[in-house]
Amino acid sequence: MKNKVPFVVKCAMVFVVLFVLFALFGQWLSPYEFRETSLLNRLKPPGTEGYILGTDARGRDVLVRLAVGAQITLIVALVGTIIGAVLGSLLGILAAARRGWTENVIVAAIDVQASLPIIIVALFVLAMFDNSFTLFLLLIGLTGWEVYARLMRGAVLSAKEHGYVTAVRALGASPWRIYLGHILPNVISVALVQFTVNLPLTILLETALSFLGLGVQSPLTSLGQIMSEGRDRLLTAWWLTLFPGAIIFLLALSVSLIGDWLRDRLDPTLKAR
């Protein structure tokens, strides 16, 4: 019974699966293209014939735009979080392995990154340079790497003191074999747990920047951009912000619940309690 998945976590998993399916195949639920406009069908409310979730100010089908927006949000969140996880984990392992000036430089970079307000930095970079999708994706990816680096450095330093590492080193194993074959498999769960923690934060960061007009740009769209387009019509066209806002809220909540459950199962410090 101890390993039974809680009902709330099951619901979260179901929603995440449905969200992924909607992002991948939701465009086929509507006969319209996501950029197709119809000035004769502007601001149609949900339930209008031919428009299940209504239309926006340009007569575009909200359902298909939500599907495309969910797809872009999913890509940005996953790729951005993976970039930060890989970069931070590699730097953390390098700091723990090399020590000396290498560790000092990486730790200093971690402290600098942790002290920077990421929203302000993102606003500055995206406002100063040409806001391309690639730049936006890289900027999202560089968010939170310092957390992975700090955690992986501590985990590797702790693992190096364990008896099995000392025994393998005494047998003449090379450093590559020690780290890849023995240390990394025992510390990778730390990065996996942090990945589930950072993923909803990345989703909210992408949403915030797109809502402010500094994220995903036309002709692409994202859930945050769809919300931004409807913010001036909260009373007359409430569906333009309610639907994407509800999806973002439920997605971030679901991923957070799954992340907390995985942390309880994978984090060795919690298992020991």
From TrEMBL:
Keywords: Cell membrane, Membrane, Transmembrane, Transmembrane helix, Transport. It comes from Thalassorhabdomicrobium marinisediminis. Pfam families: BPD_transp_1, OppC_N. One of its GO terms (biological process) is transmembrane transport. InterPro entries: BP-dependent_transpt_permease, MetI-like, MetI-like_sf, OppC_N. It is a multi-pass membrane protein. The chain crosses the membrane at residues 7-29, 68-93, 105-127, 133-151, 178-197, 235-258. It is found in: Cell membrane. GO terms for cellular component: plasma membrane. Residues 70-259 form the ABC transmembrane type-1 domain. This is Peptide ABC transporter permease. SUPFAM superfamilies: MetI-like. The keyword Transmembrane helix applies. It comes from the Bacteria. Its main location: membrane.
